[in-house]
Amino acid sequence: RTLSNENGPRGAPWNVLCYYAEEISVRVPLQAVTTPISIWSEKILEKLHIPNIMAQDVPNLPPDYYTCQFRSNKLERFLGHENKDTFFKTTQRHQILYEILARTPYGSLKRGEVGIGRLVSEHVLTAAFPLHEGPFEMPKTPVDPQSLNMRQILHHYWARWACWRKYQPLDHIREYFGEKIALYFAWLGKTEHTFNLYQDIKHVNMFNLAGLLFDNGGTVFFSIFMSLWAVTFLEYWKRTSSILSHRWDCSEFEEIEERPRPEFTALAPMTVRNPVTGAEEPYFPETQRLSRTLTGNMVIILMIAIVLIFLIAIILYRTILSIIIYRSQNGFFIFSAGRIASLTGSMLNLLVILLLSRLYTYLAQILTRWEMHRTQTKYEDAFILKVFIFQFVNFYSSPVYIAFFKGRFVGYPGKYNTLLGIRNEDCGASGCLIELAQELLVIMVGKQVISNIQEFVLPKLKAWWHRRKLKPAPSQEVIDEPDSEPGLSPWEANYQLLVCEGLFDEYLEMVLQFGFITIFVAACPLAPLFALINNWVEVRLDAQKFVCEYRRPVVERAQDIGIWLTILKFISYLAVITNAFLIAFTSDFLPRLFYRYTTGSMRGYVNFTLSVAPANYTQSHMTCRYRGLKDDKGQPTQDYYHLLAIRLSFVIIFEHVVLLIGRIIDWMVPDIPEEVEIKVKREHYMAKEALAENQASFLETIIDGSSVFLCLLHVFPLVVPQSLSRTVLEEMVQQ
Prior knowledge:
mainly alpha, two-stranded antiparallel sheet
């Protein structure tokens, strides 16, 4: 009841709130920021005198303040200190109350029996959550928008499908759900807006020849564009993140303000002094953590090996299915044998990917908890890294195989290579690039469709089932008490909502999608279009879940999106190299360019790409040809080595040019805007002044009479008032 008390101020005594606010470094306002918040696209449209259809007037905009960490002895220096009921925001009260509940032991500390989270996991309690601020539905009668509660504002101006083209009210999201969730939606919104550029850049003729649709000269320039887009997007996000983290008072959260996890505090075997804060904090030896981390890495390697085993099984499945279809003597199926085997193999691969993902995520949670990371940020970073490494191999192993290995080790007529006694796979008549595009569309779009259906349908089914379980039996529906209210209490109504499962799955889905549209964009230029559509849907689905279907989560602070940014940087650099190799070795762009340069036309190009089988391979006088640049003995020709040199040169030039331009963009765009740096310095100055002025006012209050004060300064002329502690001053006055 303490955490779900909607009356707010009566949830905890004032002195308790002050103690824990100082303990967890809650930031409180010093002075209002008068500079208006601006959006770059809004400025551009205003200068061009173009109506901004994305803008909307959202009521009750949370004010922006210069802030500093709360100190009880400086209470009178903060804005709003006169009203104790409203001095701490609702979300700050939630943080304080949850901090108390999360650190209170209820049993043996050695067994980690600490905190309300463990009580819920052991089913001692059914749930612990803060309450939503009233209903999300709009009143049936017209009302002043300023009178709406924050949940109604978020639903009407953000979560509805009609708001798909509007700016997200990020400050309102932060005010209601906290910085961590607001940063996720800010990042998701930036990917949505930057994907819009794709529509203006790429126009594809959908019904051209399949080979020319994805494998043409424009693919090179589009790959360069997408690689530079990835770098530009990350630089733009770093600037946006620095602006938001300062505006939301989280720019120093990880270095100074973040406290140890309750579970770590309970199970750590010793304490040491924090070199930054000087406080005694629980400590876990790094050597023990390292040994546990190495053990966890062995599990990761084992799971990756399992993924590769399944990949080999799917390769064998495609080959065996093709053989079975060829022997069926059905003309229609024989003609499409390779396509049927490839398509069904892709679907089977998607099913295996989704099943292994759930299994490994569960294992990663156990391993990360066992490693004993100090803070929640480090815990989440370790967990995310484990899962991403596995998911990277899980999702991308099949596309990488098709892009760089399939058809490379087939051999030649009369001497074919085999795997477990079965002939190695070869690419279809249109080449491996089209097969790769098909694989990408099946995995990426298939996962998007499945995920969106799950996010749209499953919450409603879960909510219905949850309410059904909570519904009393018919014999219990009769109420004997005449004064009882027919409606549910707020905490009972909120209890019928679903538990918020965090942001990990949401981030993982978007990061994997980012990999698909950058690493393999040369093979499937349509991938960013599907990503754009998915992001439009994802923002609204996630908004509706948080506002309408989830219990209100406890506010969590965050400085940025964490290790996800490092992973995105890794993907962007890998995308440059991968696209260079795709264009050079998988597509026919360079062979066509080489043939046109050497012969002056494209006449006879198909015969150029085919080699003649050895004479002893066929018993008739018919000539048999196969794909490859080899002589009649199966050895590479001179043209093969010329083309190999061109391909390697292209990879080096492509990679260096794109990365150089990316570095120039990184150098030209500072991570922290100048106006933010000025605000940071201004805030630090104001915090320092608050401390000095408070101590000066303390001198005036504890010393009665100006003569005593002047005498004190005369007796101790070398002592600066700001350097005197409260105890020293009191002793001096008593003397």
